[in-house]
Specification:
424 residues, mainly alpha, globular
């Protein structure tokens, strides 16, 4: 018990330094999240007694530089280059004006949420959806005087809809493969849980949208400058790799920007460079989070959580609750919902089979709860990416994440009240 708690203590240090200090001070900007991760990382390296210091540092470095971490960093770099060159070229303003011209003000929140749901369901990735839509949402917020964190949260929520439901989402594939069920069966179970929650949130956004005001000035649309975003959305929907999508977007912004006179060749280079530099904090946070969480895993923190959460299971409802709690806690510790499902998938199958949990329901629980938690952690890729693109604090987005909250409640109720009946 003591060893397991010590293994998890770096996460507690991070929460104390960042969240508790910020709440006490009443200002979530007072403690830079990079500093909180640095302090927690130093503590994690120091507590590893019995292991040489050089080996502890090596464990931390391996976690910071895994293949998944480096892929995420490459996406951050390309996203920064695309977002800033698109901004300097005028693509964001043009796309925002097009959205304002097409959608009535009261439909903006609901329209953005639907767009994010559709795109994420089609491409199976929340990060790709966030990259494509958050700059547009932030621009609309500035034009209409709406809260930027609110608009950003609308996109994050919609992006998690597809991450959870899509047939090509890696979380769906991992959840169904570890539980031994078909993609279509897991989709049916998930649909009963998350679609009602999505409809409720859509209605909420329709009511909230009634207070959004249309800009008073006349709206003019530079249609050529909208092309990069339309191409990015189209290629993403076609299933192209997110890095290839961003590369195409970067080339288009450069070509159209130079053609339209928005910047010259070297101006384009500077725009990309500034965008990449602007992602520096996200890259540092990503690497430190990876290192910190690898030390927690190496010291037995993940195994401790699994053992504690499965020790008192006695019936089917308890088994489903333990699976939900397991994947949620592991996601908190790994900041990656796919890794969380992979980590607990085997034990979830064992617990589910022992207490008669339907494999399709177990897969749905794994996927849904991992996506819910992923939508709330300020050091997860989705929140970090969205906050960076919208130029707001990751924590400032959290109070507006209505969709993940609604799905979390719906998923918990589905366990407590044995719903849907056919799979419970």
């Amino acid at each position: 018990m003591k060893k397991g708690l010590i293994a998890l203590s770096p996460l507690a240090v991070f929460i104390l330094v960042y969240l508790v200090t910020s709440i006490v001070a009443g200002d979530f900007y007072i403690v830079p999240i990079t500093v909180a991760f640095m302090i927690a990382s130093m503590y994690a390296v120091l507590i590893g007694r019995g292991i040489p210091l050089s080996e502890r540092i090596d464990i931390y470095s391996r976690g910071a530089g895994t293949g998944k971490m480096m892929l995420m960093i490459w996406i951050f770099i390309l996203a920064g280059a695309f977002a800033n060159s698109a901004k300097q070229m005028g693509a964001i303003d043009a796309t925002v004006n097009l959205a304002l011209a097409i959608l009535p003000a009261q439909m903006l929140l609901a329209g953005l949420f639907l767009a994010a749901c559709f795109i994420s369901l089609s491409v199976g990735t929340s990060v790709g959806t966030i990259v494509a839509l958050v700059p547009i949402a932030a621009g609309i917020a500035n034009q209409t005087g709406t809260s930027v964190p609110l608009m950003t949260a609308v996109i994050v929520g919609g992006s998690l809809f597809g991450d959870n439901l899509s047939f090509i989402s890696d979380t769906t594939i991992v959840a169904t493969s570890t539980q031994g069920c078909r993609l279509s069966d897991k989709f049916r179970v998930n649909s009963f849980i998350v679609i009602p929650a999505a409809i409720v949130i859509l209605i909420v956004y329709l009511f909230m949208g009634s207070s959004v005001s249309q800009p008073q000035s006349e709206i003019s649309v530079a249609y050529l400058k909208v092309v990069p975003y339309l191409v990015v959305l189209a290629t993403a929907l076609m299933g192209m790799n997110v890095m290839a999508v961003l590369t195409v977007g970067i080339v288009l912004t450069g070509a159209i920007g130079i053609y339209s006179g928005a910047f010259g060749l070297f101006g384009w280079f500077h725009a990309m460079g500034d965008g990449i530099t602007g992602m520096g904090e996200l890259i540092i946070i990503t690497m430190m989070a990876g290192g910190l969480l690898e030390i927690i895993r190496h010291n037995g923190g993940i195994d401790f959580i699994i053992n504690v959460m499965t020790s008192k299971v006695s019936n089917k409802r308890g088994a489903e609750l333990s699976i939900a709690a397991l994947v949620s806690l592991v996601d908190l510790c790994t900041a990656n919902n796919t890794v969380a499902i992979l980590t607990v998938g085997g034990i979830a199958k064992h617990v589910g089979d022992k207490y008669g949990v339907d494999n399709r329901k177990a897969a749905s629980i794994l996927d849904t709860f991992s996506c819910v938690v992923q939508g709330f952690i300020p050091y997860g890729a989705q929140i970090l990416m969205a906050a960076g693109l919208a130029s707001v604090s990751p924590v400032s987005i959290l109070p507006y994440l209505y969709y993940p909250l609604a799905v979390g409640i719906a998923a918990l109720l589905s366990i407590l009240f044995r719903y849907p009946r056919r799979y419970s």
